[in-house]
Amino acid sequence: MSGDQSPTMKIPMSSPDLTEYPPPRQPGLALHATLILTLAILSAFGAWRAFESAVGPMLTLFSLLAVAAFIPLPILAYRLSALMRANYSLDRDTLSLTWGLRIERIPVSDVEWVRPVSDLTSPLHLPWFCLPGAVLGIRRHPDLGLVEFMAANRKKILLVATARRVFAISPDDPAAFVQDFQHAIEMGSLAPAPGQSLYPTFVIAQAWESALARYLWLAGLFLNAGLLIWVSLLIPTLPRVPLGFQPYDGPLEPVAGARLILLPILSVFLFAIGWIAGLYFYRREEQRILAFILWASSALTALLFLLAVLFIVTTPI
Questions:
Q1: pLDDT band at 242 (very low <50, low <70, confident <90, very high)
Q2: How far apart, in whole angstroms, are the C-alpha atoms of residue 261 and residue 22?
């Protein structure tokens, strides 16, 4: 069954008094997975060809390809993960909007109205760089003010207005969402709860409060920065370095010294991936040990790359 036709997961408005309305996921999941795979292949191809190319325009071209293809990968990976766990849930007291690390809990009594975007007299422009499964961002509307998008499908957008901000969401069954919201309003709130807004930056700030996390982040950052600076200073003094192997007999093959820059670049890539993955696991108390393991591994990897460069530059050709 496709994502656009997946049924709304509904629980009767009695105990536990919760109804969930997941957004349509399948088109966005397929597109993001395809983009991630394509860019990962391009980045790996660019790095491999840069390693094989002689010093010159082709080395620069393939290095730029590897970097340019890698840069969007963390963003796309986060958006894929966010879409997989995205959800809108409603009970008599609270409307909860969840999209990745972004969580908004709104007391039902604070919602002023819910209506489809087609009811607006002035068009609502979408955020920049929208993809199926990731209609995310903030735009200003002349009548509504700030509108925050937490949607997957631009054709199913509903607007949820509060005194502070308007939210654009896309439940898979908008009509059922509107109907059940009106029903929740009519039933009244049993125990009004305070609103809550959590942003992805909240996880970074929370992790930064941990002395161990700060130490691991800074250790990895300084090791990578030091490695990059050191290699940049070494390259002009090293015409050739023993980097690589012959296809058959296996001895070290001296190559142009400029290729040594690939090691700090690879180290930075691995550090960025480990840092982002650690933030993902840090969100939950029971998984934080995995975050610390990833951050420690990233710092250790940078140290190993530094030792590898030391070994390479001290190995006689």
A1: confident
A2: 46
| Partners of 134 in beta bridges | 131
Dihedral angle of Cα 277, 278, 282, 285, to the nearest 10 degrees: 100
Q: What is the pTM of this model?
A: 0.73
Peptide bond into 192 cis (omega under 30): no
pLDDT in tens, 154-190: 999 999 999 889 999 999 999 999 998 888 888 876 7
Give CA separation, 1 vs 4, 26, 56, 62, 190, in Å: 8, 9, 52, 41, 37
Beta-bridge partners for 256? 240
Domains of the chain: 3-14+86-198 (2.30.29), 201-317 (no CATH)
CA angle 56, 61, 67 (to 5 degrees): 130
Contacts of 142 (CB under 8 A, 6+ apart): 122
pLDDT in tens, 176-235: 999 988 888 888 767 767 778 888 777 888 899 899 999 999 999 999 999 988 988 887
Helix/strand/coil for 240: strand
Work out the pLDDT band at 6, boundaries 50, 70, 90. Answer: very low
Helix (H, G, I), strand (E, B) or coil at 101: coil
Question: ∠ CA 158-161-163 to the nearest 5 degrees?
Answer: 170
Residue for token pair 């890539």 = 269
Residues 143 and 166: their CA atoms lie apart, in Å, by 11
Region 16-37: what's the mean pLDDT?
A: 89
Neighbours of 182 (CB within 10 A): 11
- φ/ψ of 237, rounded to 5, equals -95, 0
Q: Which residues contact 118 (CB under 8 A, 6 or more apart)?
A: none
Q: What is the rounded average pLDDT for all residues in the chain?
A: 84
